[in-house]
Amino acid sequence: MSEEGLSIADYPLAEKRPDIVRGKRGRGLDEITLEALLEERITLEDLRITEAALRQQAEIARAAGRGTLAANFERGAELVDVPQDTIMRVYELLRPGRAQSQEELIAAARELRDQYGAKSIAAFLEEAAEVYERRGLFKKRF
Amino acid sequence: MAREPRTFANRWKRFSDWDERPLRLDKFAIEDAENGFASFTSRHDPKPGLTLSSGGVDEMDGIGVSDFDMIDTFIVRYHIDPAIAPEAMDLPSHEIARMLVDMNVPRSELVRLARGMTPAKLAEVVTQLSSLEIAFAYSKMRARKTPGNQAHVTNAKDDPLQMAADAATAVAFGFDEVETTMRVARNAWSNALACAVGASVGRWGTLFQCSSEEAEELKIGMAGFTSYAETVSVYGTEKSFIDGDDTPWSKAFLAAAYASRGIKMRCTSGAGSELLMGFHEKKSLLYLEARCLCLQRAMGVQGTQNGGIDGAPITCTVPGGMRELMAENLIAVWLDLECASGNDARATESEIRVGAKIMPFLIAGSDLICSGFGSILKYDNSFNASLLNGEELEDYLVLQRDFEADGGLTPVEETHVLALRTRAVEAIGAVLEELGLGQPTEGMKSSVIAASGSDETRSYLPRDVVPISESIKERGITVVDVIKALARRGFTEEAENLLKLLRLRVSGDYLQTSAVVRDGRVLSAINDPNDYLGPGTGYRVSEARRGEIVAIRDVLTREEVLRAEAVHKAAESKRVSYRTMGPAAAGKDRCEVVIGVSPAFGVKLFQTIAGHPLSAILRELIGGITEGGAKARVVRMKHTADTSFLGLSAAHLSGSGVGIGIQAKGTAVIHQNDRLPHNNLELFSNSPITRLEHYRHMGANAAAYALGKMPEPVVVPTRGEAMGSRYHARVSLIYAIETELTSEGAMPEDVEVTFMGSAA
What we know:
CATH topology of the largest domain in chain B: TIM Barrel
Strand content of chain B: 5-15%
Shape of chain B: elongated
Number of strands of chain B: 20
Largest interface: A-B, 63 and 68 residues
Structural class of chain B: alpha/beta
CATH architecture of the largest domain in chain B: Alpha-Beta Barrel
Low-confidence stretches of chain A: none
Low-confidence stretches of chain B: none
Strand order of the largest sheet of chain B: 14-20-16-15-17-18-19
Strand content of chain A: under 5%
Structural class of chain A: mainly alpha
Distance between the termini of chain A: 46 Å
CATH class of the largest domain in chain B: Alpha Beta
Radius of gyration of chain A: 19 Å
Mean pLDDT of chain A: 94
Largest sheet of chain B: 7 strands, mixed
Number of helices of chain A: 7
Oligomer: heterodimer
């Protein structure tokens, strides 16, 4: 999507660029109607954000001068397809004293990178591993 | 001579009076930086500084890279922009402070510079601003142009029916966001479902969150019940962070997780949290908060709930505490974060301090002025009482009107609220039935619709709610099931509204900074940026919006005054008749007291402000004069309606030289013919508290003056009521009716007064 070069003039996408807004299974916004929901043509799955939408919002955020927000959207984009249980497990592992060594975090980083292509999230976890080691967080707290 | 009683005093009793005021329930703390009680500065705060080398940052705020804690590390890696830092750090702080309050320096330039500034630098700059300058700078620097507000919707019973009714009510008052939480942790799912249904009544677009345990909250969001989260807390010292059971990396991961689920998110931080948690490192509240805020920008969250929050009460115990809360909010918006600006936990028992606390934000505006205005009663607030609550909501509406300031709320008519509450309770009742979660009775529902708070309901209790909540969770009920249930039971509009909110997730537009939904459109710092550059720019209350703000209930109109008088006229016609006898001549009788009545007295106006019929007033005055040994004559003045001149004119006509002047509203005076107009003998200026016996006594005193005696003047006791605020609107309308009837040079006329029947 980055070649589109979205700018703040394209925002809000739902209004200005409905043509590029698509749900998880390719449904457009105009297809998301109460009727369709009642007839089960639309499910909760169609109402989830997509990796593409987050990358588009990242472009807009960056165009508005908000680089750190854009980076968060990009990390989010990498997590869209990561199952809830995995997300909660990795979050738990990042909390103080949960991981007992750098290796546990590094292993989680490898899993996210290899299975979901989550490169920046993986790098983020590896960075945490290094900082936690330096600050002595790998010890049991309770 | 009897022994005079003496007063033994070891104390000026005013201090005892003061002891009884709500203010004295507030406990204040001495400034003591060593123990963490310092708002703006501590000698342990570092001097701002940043040393860059080819390898990156070597030193920040006096700490070398090898000694960086997690917070320093995160800030240096993700917040500090090395391309801007040298320029920004070199600018003298007082110069940047001046830029913040210079309307000619655009917000964008200051936001750019903030990216190169360390926490100590940001703190040093805002410390130079007075409270007024902070408020002004806040108004200029906040990200979204249009201000908004957030409500708490909770109740002491976790009752889903009341939750829905109160959510619908909050939406009607115009809150952009609704936040709920529960008394019993397990009731989170029920609360979320009920609030989501309630918030879909009336209009769509109010964002909704359910504050609960981190993992649970994300799951509830995933099920589609909530649309944002804000209780992702961060702290300004490493030890506090760890005791909060998180790190900057875990919280930033959570932020990305929320984004991945299409849920709007902001962090929470505020002065005093480190102090409360015991790890303040002897630093000032502001410096620690500046660290929190740099960290939040670094994490890439769009916004912050900031301004003390749970730490607001302790911050307000310290000198400059309220100014500090404003200063940290300023740093938040300067860092380009959406700011839900506190004004949340009730930081004082003093209503004056409450009003003072909210004022700067009301006039400056904020993305969300309160990060939880208690839209429910205090005892129903499961977060604890807010600065402003259901009890005081109308006070806030009036403040908006007083200052023509947009505080994000809109007055709502009684009948409309009742209709919405009914609809919300019917809707949640239908959903509970459709999903096999409950069968609320008509009695339960009707008690909730009318209830101001949960004390008055006969509905679900916390224990009844647990199985409902657990069933929602275990059966994996999602918002789609709720939408279908609503539609099946004919709540099509509510079903559509919920679906529209859910559809926001697909594009993710509302994940951008300061996003709210107004009139079906996402409004954020991108398409509604604050463009303040002096008068005439930035947010202005439009004519249409002003019309909404000023439309509070029960405002007085001239028509209403005239309608009331018409009712009194009918009653008075049975009690008294006035017969005009022709021009009044000067009296000869030395025992005479003339009562000079005003032009509209008994003609167009029939009752005093205190509610006494004018016939009763005349009866008392005449009775008093007669008892005092004098004779009364009633004269209508037509050249003036002013009390002093009514009295003086009456005195001039009076054979004794003493007269009484009285207006229809009840203001009365005793005058003497040789005195200056405004130098009377006795005056009843507070007609609303003047009782019939006062008028009788006035009559008797007038007689005494006429007979050359010196009576004890009548004193109408006042307890300090705000007479002007209570009565002046009505008084002015009534007085205008009097003055309309006056004409220059018109002669006074004798009036024959005949009382009919018994006294009113």
